[in-house]
Design a protein that fits this description.
Largest sheet: 5 strands, mixed
Helix content: 10-25%
Shape: elongated
Number of domains: 3
CATH class of the largest domain: Mainly Beta
Radius of gyration: 35 Å
Distance between the termini: 94 Å
Strand order of the largest sheet: 22-21-20-28-23
Amino acid sequence: MNFRSVLITGFAALVLTGCSGSKVKEAVTPEDPVSLSASVKDKAKGVTVDTIVTADAEHGSISDVTLATSDGKSTVKGRVSGTQWVASERLEPGREYKLTVKGSGDDDKEKTLERTFTTEKLSLQQQTYPSVAPLKNETVGVGMPVIVTFDIPVKNKALFERNMQVTSDKDVEGSWNWINSRVVHYRPKDFWPAGTKVTVNLRLNGLPAGNGIYGQQNQKVPFKIGQKVVSTVNIASHRLTVDIDDKRARSIPVSTGDAKHRTRQGTKIIMEKFSKVDMDAATTGVDSEDPDYYDLSDVKWAMRVTNSGEFLHAAPWSVGSQGHANVSHGCTGMSTANADWLFHHSRRGDVVKFKNSPRGIEDQNGWTDWNVSWDDWKAGSALS
């Protein structure tokens, strides 16, 4: 054995002796504290109202988040998804907000993050308000469309439509149709089933409408469909029939528009009801010097079906012609007793079909939605 072999053998023995004489200890990594962050900077100004605030946790989880205006009058709800909190709503303009995020880390220690920020100011001319028909909790007829009217035009129609939902407790196929940049209607493929409960949910607050305009308010409007009431006016035979839940309930002699003032043919919807109303021909464009001018006070049991002034109403002055001749200026007149009965068996949204007239109804002269084919109606959606 040479000197080099002795050295190697001795070194190996030394290593073996060292390993057998003690135990190896594993290294321990200290647990990390939670790291909290938010999508808005502290003391930020001019934060846009379409901002969806988020908060995140690293090396831990979020236990609680509050986001509210500094005066406490408005609170923004949110939800936790994994290690992130996401606001469920956008922000109000010209407000100071306070965000408080609490979380705990892998070390089981709690930590709090606070942020204050201010949103951009918006004038009323920079916000578009959506008004909705039907009204909240209203009971309407089977032909009633959902009508949303904006006071300032909407350019981003597709974005708005994605945030406009109509749901019902019965399986109903329906679609939005933009009449113009300020008015959008929703109707089913067929009339609403009687008794259906419907909810309109508009999540438009803070949503950019285009051209520097934002949605002004969310809306949630539940309403109900009443019984099925469909009236049919046969202009040629001077007769109005009423079917309630598909059963004949009444047949009423009527008088409609004369040869100079034909009542329009088509499917119309009852838009308004008045126990009595003044009817002035000037509102329909007839000059007071015109021989066809009229000004009637306290016309009873009147129900509007067109913008241009067609009503169903009591017409005691034409009882002798009702059922025999058309002598009105376009309205459908009947006896006071029959008008009373019809008024109290009808509601806003009920369907009135007019047939056998040489004059058709103009588009949007009232709620003319049911005169449009289903394919054409769906084509009016911004998402078609």
